[in-house]
Amino acid sequence: MTAEDRLNKLATDPRLRQVGWDGYRARPLGDAAIEAAMRFLRYPTAVVPTMCGGVQLEWHSKDVTMELTFDSDGTPLSLVGWARTDDGGLGKDLTVD
Fold first, then answer.
1. What is the pLDDT of residue 97?
2. Which of 19, 38, 45, 90 gives 20 to 30 Å between its CA and that of 12?
3. Domain hosting residue 12, numbered range
C-alpha cells in the first residue's frame, strides 16, 4: 500500500472525523491536512543532485522550507527545515538527522 493509499484510507474513515477518535480528546482529522500531505508526497518543489552523488528533494512554501537528502547508496542523510519569521528571516531550524 502506498502512502497515498494510506492517506486516502485515513480521509475516508468516519471515526477520524469525530472529536475523541483516539479515545481521549483528539481533534477530528482535517481535510486541509490530508490535502497538504498529498501535495507533499506528490510534488516536491525541486529535485536536485548533490555533490556526494545523492539526491535532494526540496519543498518550499510561503512559510517553510524542507529538504530531504539521500546519499549515493540510497541512505537518508538528513531532513532539515526552516520556518520563516514575521520579519521574513529564517527562524528556528527544524532538523532531524
1. 45
2. 45
3. 1-43
Whether residue 89 sits in one domain with residue 79: yes
Q: Mean pLDDT, to the nearest integer, of 3-13?
A: 92
Q: Is the pLDDT of residue 6 over 50?
A: yes
Q: What is the pLDDT of residue 1?
A: 84
Among 56, 45, 43, 40, smallest CA distance to 7 is for 40
- Containing 5, the helix (H) or strand (E) segment is helix 3-11
- End of a domain among 10, 26, 43? 43
Residues 22, 5 within the same domain: yes
Q: Check residue 20 and give left, alpha or beta (phi > 0: left; psi -120 to 50: alpha).
A: left
- The alpha carbons of the chain give a radius of gyration, in whole angstroms, of 17
User: pLDDT digit string (tens) for 40-63?
Assistant: 888 878 999 999 999 999 988 778
Residue that is written with C-alpha cell 468516519 in the block: 14
